[in-house]
Specification:
This protein is α/β, with parallel strands linked by helices. The chain is built from 11 helices and 10 strands.
């Protein structure tokens, strides 16, 4: 490994260490989501200072001359931040480091000690890829293997007695040409569908939606690191439910009553129509403040979960976001009707009081490794 690669590798290790130490802070603040690219995230790391040497522009004494004590600063001291007169020069800028979503998910898994997920689908979608596996004497010029061609020409030249060490000119012939060969490799690809459901009734404010937005980002990052293929669907509901795109899911403003069963019915219908449990790993997530319209609708929810959603899902996850307007009753109803917390129960409930609780909630949802 070259020196520059060693330095780069060491720098990446430092970056990973800083990210791990500040992971809870990054998760609780939603700024990383705004810095997300297609498959990378820009993370501000103002703590990392890159060392550099700078020549002294002043004509001073030699090294070590003058009075001073151990630990004294060298040269002119710097003003404390926020003090001093206004200037026209540039200020210090925070260092931003690009981290792939896979690497971010790996750090998340290491820090929260998340177990790897074992796919439960009986069938897998098969993808085909071309892989270069050997050498053959015919092929297109774009696949010519120059090293193998030269070696073949050299062996032929030596065998025929034409090779001159003083004038080592090798001219390959058509018979010397070697080309890369490929074969089509079929690889199984585990599939997963994540269905996010969110209560957008009047009691769910912007702060509650922001918590859902942050938590779903990190859940998605982890699940994408576990599956080759993943599909995400979004449902919003108040008294009725409808499927929306991602932007609408996090930015819609609605009001009205809450009938949670409307979302569960729609989710069950989507799964029945598009994602048979024999082929897909299914993850429904529902976020609400726990306020439902009536006891009768809660009974309908329990029935749909028992008969439709829970049996076909790897795990059904319910996150209750604390709201000053919600009753918070629904999570109690789920715990009364399901053995939440038991090793054989795939219903997981989590109470999310504020952004600081997001980290523990993620661990509660993903800690079982289902």
């Amino acid at each position: 490994m070259s020196r520059i690669k060693q330095d780069h590798s060491r720098f990446r290790q430092i970056v990973r260490g800083r990210i791990r130490r500040n992971l809870k802070q990054y998760i609780s603040r939603g700024e990383l989501i705004g810095k997300q690219g297609k498959d990378r995230v820009s993370i501000p790391l103002p703590q990392i200072e890159l060392p550099r040497f700078k020549f002294n522009a002043q004509d001073g004494g030699g090294v070590g001359q003058g009075n001073g004590e151990e630990g004294d600063g060298l040269g002119k001291g710097q003003e404390e931040p926020g003090k001093g007169e206004a200037g026209e020069g540039e200020g210090e800028k925070a260092l931003e480091v690009d981290v792939t979503l896979d690497e971010l998910a790996q750090i998340l898994g290491e820090e929260l000690q998340l177990p790897r997920i074992e796919p439960r689908g009986q069938k897998e979608v098969v993808t085909e890829r071309d892989r270069y596996t050997g050498i053959r004497p015919v092929g297109p010029d774009s696949l010519r293997h120059f090293k193998r061609t030269y070696k073949q020409a050299l062996k032929r030249s030596i065998a025929m007695g034409h090779y001159d060490p003083k004038n080592p000119v090798i001219l390959p012939t058509k018979e010397d040409m070697r080309y890369r060969s490929w074969s089509t490799v079929k690889s199984p690809q585990s599939n997963a569908v994540v269905i996010y459901m969110m209560d957008v009734s009047g009691s769910m404010g912007d702060e509650q939606k922001e918590i859902v937005r942050i938590e779903s980002f990190w859940i998605n990052a982890w699940l994408k690191s576990q599956y080759e293929g993943i599909v995400t669907r979004y449902i919003v509901h108040d008294a009725t439910a409808r499927e929306v795109d991602e932007h609408t899911f996090f930015h819609t403003r609605e009001s009205g009553g809450t009938m949670i069963s409307s979302a569960y019915k729609l989710a069950a219908r989507i799964i029945d129509d598009d994602y048979p449990s024999s082929d897909w790993n299914i993850y429904p997530f529902h976020f609400s403040d726990g306020d439902n319209w009536s006891v009768d609708d809660t009974r309908s929810c329990i029935r749909i979960l028992n008969e439709g959603l829970v049996p076909v899902s790897n795990q059904f996850s319910y996150g209750q976001v604390e709201s000053p307007y919600g009753s918070g009753q629904f999570i109690k109803d789920l715990r009364e009707n399901f053995a939440v917390g038991a090793s054989d129960c795939n219903v997981v409930c989590s109470e999310i009081k504020d952004k600081e609780a997001i980290v523990n909630s993620i661990k509660e949802f993903l800690g079982a490794g289902r």
